[in-house]
């Protein structure tokens, strides 16, 4: 399996530096990256052209999600609408634990489907390793830092992240101008 690096935890500029460094390196060892990387590819990077524009932006209700909290979701993106141009946040099931605030520690499970090819790019569910982060500390993409505010422990939340709040020009397995669809489970909120 190809290691993508820390998709959620590294900004676009850092990804470019890492990509350039990796291209010039003759060291095939991947131990450091693999040990710290919560994200691994479950498929090849998308190289398909985006679907034809329909003139209608998708909403949270257009995205199909099956599965309950704690299980790997199945995410279905329709081809009858265009990717949204702004961050979409929707609780699919609301937990009864504390709500996340900026600066708090979170432990999240997630599945990521890329809009352009409608394939799972990464899943902590499949790895069996929830992802720890400090909310609002810039450790993750802006779509997560913004979209996870207020998530309650025990909640399943859908995030549709436009390119400017994700990876913009792409890198590390994410195609340029890619919209990202996450289903996240808030395993733990706070320490």
From TrEMBL:
Biased composition (Low complexity): 32-53
PPIase FKBP-type domain boundaries: 103-190
GO molecular function: isomerase activity
Pfam families: FKBP_C
Domain of life: Bacteria
E.C. no: 5.2.1.8
Reaction(s) the record says it catalyses: [protein]-peptidylproline (omega=180) = [protein]-peptidylproline (omega=0)
Signal peptide as annotated in the record: 1-24
Region: Disordered, residue numbers: 25-56
Sorted UniProt keywords: Isomerase, Rotamase, Signal
Family to which the UniProt record says this protein belongs: Belongs to the FKBP-type PPIase family.
Entry protein name: Peptidyl-prolyl cis-trans isomerase
Origin organism lineage: Bacteria, Bacillati, Actinomycetota, Actinomycetes, Mycobacteriales
């Amino acid at each position: 399996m190809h290691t993508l690096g820390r998709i959620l935890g590294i900004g676009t500029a850092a990804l470019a530096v890492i990509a350039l460094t990796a291209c010039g390196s003759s060291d095939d060892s991947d131990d450091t990256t693999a040990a710290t990387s919560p994200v691994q590819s479950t498929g090849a990077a998308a190289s398909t052209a985006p679907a034809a524009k329909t003139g209608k932006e998708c909403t949270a209700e257009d995205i199909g999600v099956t599965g309950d909290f704690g299980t790997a979701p199945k995410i279905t993106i329709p081809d009858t609408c265009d990717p949204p141009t702004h961050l979409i946040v929707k609780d699919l099931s609301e937990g009864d634990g504390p709500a996340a605030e900026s600066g708090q520690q979170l432990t999240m499970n997630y599945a990521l489907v890329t809009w352009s090819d409608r394939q799972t790019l990464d899943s902590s569910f499949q790895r069996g390793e929830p992802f720890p982060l400090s909310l609002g500390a810039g450790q993750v993409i802006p779509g997560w830092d913004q979209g996870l505010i207020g998530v309650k422990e025990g909640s399943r939340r859908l995030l549709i992240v436009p390119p400017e709040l994700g990876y913009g020009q792409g890198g590390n397995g994410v195609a340029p101008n890619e919209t990202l669809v996450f289903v996240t489970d808030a395993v733990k909120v706070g320490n």
